[in-house]
Every structure is written in structure tokens, then in C-alpha cells.
Amino acid sequence: MIAPERRRRADIAVAALLVAVLAAAALGAWWASPARHASLVTAAEPIPEIEQATAVPDALVEAWRERSPGSTTPIVARGAVISVRANEVGGHDARSGAQAWSYRRAEAICTATSTWNRVIVAFRGPRGCGEVMSFDPASGERGPQRTSEADATVTIESNGSRFASFGPTRLEGWRSDLVRTVETGRVSAPIEPGLQPRDDCEIRDAAITQSRIPMIVQCPDDVGERLVMLASDPESFRKPEEFGDALLTRTDATLGEVPGVDGARIVSASPQSTVIAVPGDRPALAIFDGQAEPRGRHDLPPRVLAAEAFAGATLPAVLDGSSGIAVWDAGAGLVALSPNDQRPIWDFPGSLGQPAMMAGSLLVPVPSGIAVVDVRTGEPIRTMAVDRDEAPGTVNLAVVGDLVIEQRGETLVALAPGP
Predict the structure, then answer these.
(1) Does the reported pTM lie above 0.70?
(2) Given this model, what pLDDT does residue 191 score?
(3) Where do the H-state alpha helices sit in 112-152?
(4) Cα–Cα distance, 97 to 190 (Å, whole number)
(5) First to last CA, the chain
């Protein structure tokens, strides 16, 4: 029988030291981790859902207001309205304004958005705005989350079941569970070098559909911006697949249609077509198919255009599900696009920002209140008076049931049906 090995004091000391080192490393990782500095308060009772309105109210009265300096347009999901502050996101009952849940951490919030059943929040981390959390809008319960490389500023776009997060040098596409399906642009530590054909291009704008990611980029060798049509779910997320690309053109008063666009923006996107607002002497809407082939071009009505239409990221068009008409805020008014060929079919000057749909009508923020507009013709039906205290500047709308949520600067204001 073999005698057991004898343990020496030195062996015990070494083992104890290893255990202490591992424990210290684990403690250090926890101490430095975002989880130690995070605080989640879930709802005692989930925020109740609100049924869609069957008619537009006769009048509106202010129900509540809440500061949300971290958002520019109302973030709503089911019966919840989401407020965003420096490093805290909160879910409010749309009817009462009462805060039902909150999540706070030490790091700043970069951006937030929502789909019908999720709130998505990107926090700043050591590798950019890549600390991404998701929450149930009714309860605040945490859902899928991810950590990845990102730029210092990002925009998150969603089509309801997929997301695209992009900054100037990098874009990622995610499924609804935040699993990455594609990355393009800068990859700091590529597992397989040479897979990114446009890693030196600046990403100017992007959108996502079920099968496509249209992306506007400025590449070093191009005279202007280019549309690149990516697959939203390629065979490997590391290697983007392109359906096609096109150099964008603008209208010059002397030369006609020429390349050299700077400041184009995606207005709307579907798997079949992408509509891009193109600046120039005659600003236009350029339409491309799913392979980035040009399919049409229409002049934009000059009376609704403002510099804001081509300055920075703009809000996407609002789609009326029954008619297929898309309505875009062009800076000084609205433009409605035909569902057949995306040509402008009417325009509405003097709006203050993003409209919203309620019970088949378009609600438009105007200086005197909220105009109820026939989405098929652009004709105003009536105006619901809203007292905004002072000139609010930009006002963006969202609808939750029969409530209208306005974002006025850094403040969310809920308007409920009134007498």
C-alpha cells in the first residue's frame, strides 16, 4: 500500500496564498464592476397596459410632467413612459406619472430607446457606449444585456424586433435578445483580420429592417457620402455581407445631378426600399431598392425645409399602418410620402416636431396646441388647445392609449382627455 504524501508547512502556506490571491482578485473585480454601483428598484405592481384609443379626444389637459434631459423624444412602451436622466432610467405609469421602477448606476447613460416590450439603455463603459441593458417596461425587471466595443457616442435604431447601434466608426446589429448578428467598421482586436471592407469609413446614418441595414458612410476615396446596403443577419457576424452600394448625388444649380453629398439622412427604410433626404440646391428624396439601386428621385417642398432636416441625426418617419403613408419632420414642417413610390403627396408647414398617430388620425404639434390632421390628405380637422406656458421650441410627440406625451426640451408632459 502506498503511503500518502506528507503535507509540508510550505505546501499549506502556498495553497493558502493562492486562495487569498484568487479571493482578492474576485473582490477587486466586484469592487470595480458596474454591478457594485448599480441600483435596481422594480415595480411593486407592474404598470398596467392601456388599450389603444378608438377616437381622438375632444380636448386635452395636462396630467403630469417629469424631467427627462437624457431623451429628445418620448420613450413609451405598453403603459409606461420612460424618463432618462444622467445615469438613471425610470418607468412611469402613463396615467398618473407615478414612478414604478428605476435603475441607476455610476456610469452615464449614452442613449435609450424602446420597442413595444423592451426598454434598451446604453451606458458608458471602458470601451465606449457598449454597456447595454434591457428592461421590462411594466416592471423594470432586467432582461438580456450585453457588453461590446462601441464609440463614445451612439444612436440606437429599432424596427421592433432588431436593433442597430452605431457611432462614427462602428455599427453593430442585434436581435431582440441583444445577441449580435453583424458588426462593421472599426474592430480594435479582430479575431480574423481583413474581414471589414470599410473599416476606414465614417458612419453618418443607419437604419435597420428585418433583412437589411442601410448605412450612409463617408469613405476616404469618395467625393461624398455613399449608401451601403448590408444584410442584418449575415452568415457570420464578423464578416458583413453587402447587397450593394451607391454613391449619393445632389442637384447643383449649374451642373445638374452630381456626386458630392454631405449631410444626407435616412427618412424611412424597409427591406424593399430606403428613402434618403439629400441636401443640395434642390433638396430631394432619393429612393433605393434592397440592392442599393436608385429607383426614383423627388424634390422636397421648400416651405417645410429647415437646416435641422440635414443637421445631425434626425428622427425617422412616422408610419400609418393602415394606409402605409410615412410622415417625416423636415425641420420646418411635415412631408407625407406615398406608400407606392415614396413621392411627397402633401406637406404641412409650421409643425414643431415629431407627430404621432392616434385612432387613425395624425396628431401634429403646432404653436397653439395639437392639430388633428387627416393623414391621407394633410388637411387639418381641428386643433386641441394646449397651454405650454411659453414658446417651447421643439415638441416631439408619442401616444399611449388615449394620452399624448410631449417632450418639450428636457421635460416630458402627459396630456389626458379633458372636458
Answers:
(1) yes
(2) 72
(3) none
(4) 46
(5) 96
